[in-house]
Design brief:
Helices cover about 0% and strands about 65% of the residues. With about 260 residues, it is mainly β. The radius of gyration is 19 Å and the shape is globular.
Length: about 260
C-alpha cells in the first residue's frame, strides 16, 4: 500500500489478571490494562476494510498477555493489496514509582499483494520488537510510552527489494470520560533507513510522524458492543540519495476510520 501506511496507528490493548472480564466488570476499551478478548471490523475513507481478533489472558497473577491478528484489504478502484499484521504483548505488574506495569511487544507485518495500479507502491515484511511502560496519571487518564526496533525488507512493484532498519516511538494515551465513552490520543514517530539490495539502487531515510485521535462509545448497556470514530494524520519526510544526487519528498495524509467491536 502507500508509504503513508508503512506503519499504522492502531489501538494497543494490554492485560491484567484473567482470561476474560468478570461478569460484574463492564468492558472499557479505554482501560488498556483490562483483559479483553474481542473481534472488530473497520472501514476508512481510503476504502480499506480491516478485520481484527484478539485473545487475552494471564499466565499468572500480574503476568498478562494478548495476541492480535489483523487483515486489511484495499478495495479502491481495483486496488487489491492484502496486508496481515500479527502482534503479541506481554505485561508484568510493577506497582512502583517508576511505572505501574512494564512489558514487551512483537509486531509482524506482511504485505501479501501490492496495488497493481500504483507504480510507487511497495509491500513490507517487517518485525518490530519493543518495550512499553504504563503510567496512571489519574484514575481516568493513562499513558503508555513505547519504543521499538524495526527490521525487515520492502519490495516494490518492480520486484526490487530494499533492507529496512529503524525505530519507532509511541505514546498511547487514553482518557475514560465515563463508563460508556472514552477519548484516545496516540502520537507516533518512526525513522526508517532503506538500503537497496544492489549498488544501483537508491538509498533513503524516511521519517514518519503520525497522530491518531479518536472517540469511542458503548452501544449497549452490557458494554459488549462498542464503536469508535477516529482521525489519523500522517506526514512522511523522505530523503533519497542516488549516487551523488539527493532529493527530498514530503507526503501528507488524512485518514478517517470507523471501527465496530464486540467484546466477549
Amino acid at each position: 500500500m502507500r508509504t503513508s501506511k508503512i506503519t499504522q496507528a492502531v489501538s494497543l490493548i494490554l492485560m491484567s489478571a484473567s482470561l476474560s472480564v468478570s461478569a460484574t466488570e463492564k468492558v472499557s476499551p479505554s482501560d488498556l490494562t483490562q483483559v479483553n478478548s474481542f473481534i472488530s471490523g473497520s472501514a476508512n475513507n481510503n476504502k480499506d476494510i480491516s478485520v481484527m481478533g484478539g485473545i487475552a489472558g494471564s499466565y499468572a497473577k500480574g503476568n498478562n498477555f494478548i495476541g492480535l491478528i489483523e487483515h486489511q484489504t484495499e478495495t479502491n478502484k481495483g486496488r487489491k493489496a492484502q496486508d496481515t499484521r500479527i502482534r503479541y504483548f506481554q505485561v508484568f505488574d510493577l506497582n512502583t514509582a517508576f511505572a505501574d506495569q512494564i512489558g514487551f511487544s512483537v509486531d509482524y507485518k506482511k504485505s501479501w499483494k501490492m496495488s497493481s495500479q500504483d507504480p510507487d507502491a511497495f509491500g513490507t515484511d517487517t518485525v518490530a520488537v519493543g518495550i512499553i511502560n504504563k503510567y496512571s496519571l489519574t484514575e481516568k487518564l493513562s499513558v503508555y510510552p513505547n519504543v521499538a526496533y524495526v527490521a525487515g525488507q520492502a519490495t516494490g512493484n518492480d520486484g526490487k527489494k530494499v533492507k529496512v532498519r529503524g525505530f519507532q516511538t509511541n505514546i498511547f494515551t487514553s482518557y475514560e470520560i465515563n463508563n460508556s465513552s472514552y477519548i484516545i490520543v496516540q502520537p507516533q514517530f518512526q525513522r526508517a533507513d532503506l538500503t537497496p539490495s544492489t549498488t544501483k539502487g537508491a538509498a533513503a531515510k524516511v521519517d514518519t510522524f503520525k497522530i491518531k485521535t479518536g472517540y469511542g462509545m458503548s452501544l449497549d448497556q452490557a458494554g459488549q458492543w462498542w464503536i469508535e470514530a477516529s482521525h489519523t494524520y500522517t506526514r512522511n519526510n523522505a530523503r533519497i540519495k542516488f549516487i551523488s544526487n539527493k532529493t527530498i519528498g514530503i507526503d501528507k495524509d488524512h485518514l478517517f476510520e470507523v471501527t465496530a467491536s464486540y467484546y466477549f
